[in-house]
Amino acid sequence: METNTVQAAPAAHPSKSGLGIAGFVLGIIALATSFLPIINNFSALLAVIGFVLALIGTIACVKGRKSGKGLSIAGVVMNVIAFVVVLATQSMYSSAIDDAFSGTSVAPQPAADQPASKAPASDEAADDAQAAAAGNSITLKNGLVLTISGVVTGLQNYDGSPITQVSVTYQNNGNSQASFNPYDWKAEDAQGAQRSQTYYSNGENELNSGTLAAGGTVSGNLYFEGDVVKVLYENAFIGRGSDVSWDIV
User: Under a CB-based contact definition with an 8 Å cutoff, are residues 224 and 199 in contact?
Assistant: First the structure.
């Protein structure tokens, strides 16, 4: 009499956790970019998403529904490290920026020595224009000297809107290069509204952006919409707020 032997089918091996793999990949990207300024804001977001994915993948592996437990755990760890590195580097950069701006000093210059600026507008606008020099230079800790060398009010744009011209000068007395940029500057009106420069149809010698070598000097005009009572400076790349300002009224 023959006996039929039935062999049990081998248990299916669980597949790799896709979420764990995704979390691991995001962890690599977040960790690799976590020390880069500005970019690491995106790295922090990647680290949070990667942590959640890797954690879900780890739980699925622990319950036996998926394999790849080691990869998922590694993803959790890398995303946590990346997030910590982002916090540490941003704190370090913030501290360095505070140190750079905390040592500003003001050196008054006689306003009478400043030449009056001439408005390049129409005859009517030129008659109303009043030239005023702020007369103050501000030296930053890195040796960059900023000067408001002249202010012209009463200008009119092509659409009839009022324009204020502000002439600025950068002088690099430091030992390394320094950047200059028209978007470093803002103007504030009497109501406290702050605006970046605007287009002026009759503008001339407008300040552009670039790099200033040690010992170099560059000057240019900025044009702001409306009447201006204060001019403010901040580094456009850092964007930490306007710690340096001039009252021009």
Answer: no
Ramachandran assignment for 205, one of left (phi > 0), alpha (psi -120 to 50 degrees), beta (any other): left
Angle at 160 between CA 154 and CA 166, to 5 degrees: 40
Both structure tokens of 9 = 């089918």
> Is the pTM here over 0.70, yes or no?
no
Contact between residue 87 and residue 95 where contact means Cβ atoms under 8 Å apart: no
What are the C-alpha distances in Å from 52 to residues 21, 47, 111?
12, 9, 61
**Is 104:140 a contact under the CB 8 Å cutoff?**
yes
> From CA 214, how far away is CA 105, in angstroms rounded?
19
Please check the confidence at residue 123 and state whether its pLDDT lies above 80.
no
Longest dimension (CA), the chain: 124
The pLDDT assigned to 130 comes to 29
CB neighbour burial string for 17-36, b if at least 16 within 10 angstroms, e if fewer: bebbbbbbbbbbbbbebbbe
Q: What is the mean pLDDT of residues 176-199?
A: 85
